[in-house]
Amino acid sequence: MAAEELPDLTGMSVDSQSGGGMPPLLQMKNVSKHFGGVAALTDVDFSLRAGEIHGLVGENGAGKSTTMKIIAGVHTDYEGEMRIQDKPVRFRSARDALAAGIGMVHQELSIVSELTVAENVFLGSQPLNSLGLVDWPHMNAQARKLLTDFGLDIDPTRRMGSLPVGLQQLVELARVLFSGARIIILDEPTSALSPPEVARLFAVLRRIRADGCGIVFISHFLDDVLEISDAVTIFRNGRKVITEKAAALTKDDVIAHMIGRGSKDMHMGESAVLSGDSAKPVVLSARHVGDGKLLQDVSIDLRGGEITGVYGFMGCGQIELARALFGKGHMKHGAVTLDGKPLKLRSTASARARGIAFVPENRSMMLFRTEPVFKNMTIAILETFHRLLLRPDRERHTASAHIADLQIKARGPDMALGALSGGNQQKVALAKWLTRLPRVLILSEPTRGMDVGAKEDVIRIVKSLRDRGVAVLVLSTEPETILTLADRVTVLRKGFVTKQFDHGTVYKADLLAAA
């Protein structure tokens, strides 16, 4: 359907669209989507009504994002039918979806931090005067009015990057509404917000709902979903499991539908018997650390010869904790000790000098794709190979041994790192710490995006490091990864510790409930 033929959703109200047997704003019937030979969605039905906030939940890979990208015109090749105001549509692009009144606020905001608030609100559609120039007074006045209608007292001439994340998100939401969107998709909107910012966002969403918009609220934070939503749809393995009124669901109900079984009926990788040993020495201890932003108040002990898992959803403070313990992030408060002595980390170099190693969630941050494998393995420990003269022969010998031991699929140590798969690149990232063992190894999302075989290899490597006495910290948003690796588990939610497990059987449902 061409953009000019799309249904016009502007000017609608709750009275005109809800009740009275009127059709939904949006309806999907028997929608399926494949990527290659893999089914991402299978026969999904979904509907959204005017004046409704509809929560959408499911584990990673359940099909939520694929569904929303179809609605937003990102994925155009799919089976099934989509209707807007009971008229069939088939978007050819995201531009078509926008023309049909569909807007999406992504988890990664698309603001331009150096521009003003008003410029961000009117991005790409600034009002012009008779000379064809931007009408700054009119634009600022209109932006102020729109923000005031949201209940926001923000100077429209203020630089966008100077606002806290919560206000940036509301400004982006205002921009979506200004575009004429009446169907609004919010992807993890509360993941980076403080409780007061969440309350302000919810107040805005309720105003938008009262104006007749339909809102899809996607989140891993189940308490937030149940608080703000009128209805909730749950996805599992690419299928819709259930749609129910939010008031009729508890958090435990939602978790049971998400994982497809009771907490005592788990498959391998979805439960674990923890074996935390308090007799093992505490190597690194953090007490009440926080950065004043996402990381609020976390206390945790890392013991030699143990893997401590930290689980939580995106925005829980995991990444900030890892960076703080490696000297990459500023700690506003709290204290850290190493072997019982105060530890002040002013840089990553000082962390490495004290025996702390870090493999971040983004491998590209620490690997050099155009360089050979051996250089990537030895760069952190060059002083062990070189005194006055370079000794690449020794580097190659050490790298060759690691390639064999770790079963890295590379033709040899001189092969360019970028030619390796993601799983093999992760093995290279770990191999650099095998030559000279660190005291503490921090791993952020160590198995993300890998096939089963690569995951098993990485898990084996991490456990071998633990067995050699390293204190390992694994941080992941994947509960299966935590349950497979950890001897003890700490759960974070929005910067705070909500639960710690160190012995007995812990289930995936336990982690989801605590997060």
Describe what you observe in this structure:
The protein is of the alpha/beta class. The protein contains 17 helices and 22 strands. The protein has helices at about 15, 65-70, 95-100, 115-120, 135-150, 165-180, 195-210, 220-230, 250-260, 320-325, 350-355, 375-380, 390-405, 420-430, 450-465, 480-485, 510-515, and strands at about 25-35, 40-50, 50-55, 80-85, 85-90, 100-105, 185, 215-220, 230-235, 240-245, 270-275, 280-290, 300-305, 305-310, 335-340, 340, 355-360, 440-445, 470-475, 490-495, 495-500, 505. The strands form 5 sheets. The chain has a 6-stranded mixed β-sheet with strand order 6-7-8-3-9-10, with helices on both faces. The model is unreliable at about 1-5, about 10-20 and about 265-270 (pLDDT under 50).
Characteristics of this structure?
globular; single chain; about 525 residues; alpha/beta; 17 helices; six-stranded mixed β-sheet
Instruction: Report Rg.
Output: 25 Å
- Strand elements, count: 22
How would you classify the helix and strand content by structural class? alpha/beta
Average residue-wise pLDDT: 86
> How are the strands of the largest sheet arranged?
6-7-8-3-9-10
Unreliable stretches: 1-6, 10-20, 263-268
Q: What is the overall silhouette?
A: globular
Distance between the first and last residues' Cα: 42 Å
**How is the biggest beta sheet arranged?**
6 strands, mixed
Strand content: 15-25%
The total of helices stands at 17
Question: What percent of residues adopt helix (DSSP H or I)?
Answer: 25-40%
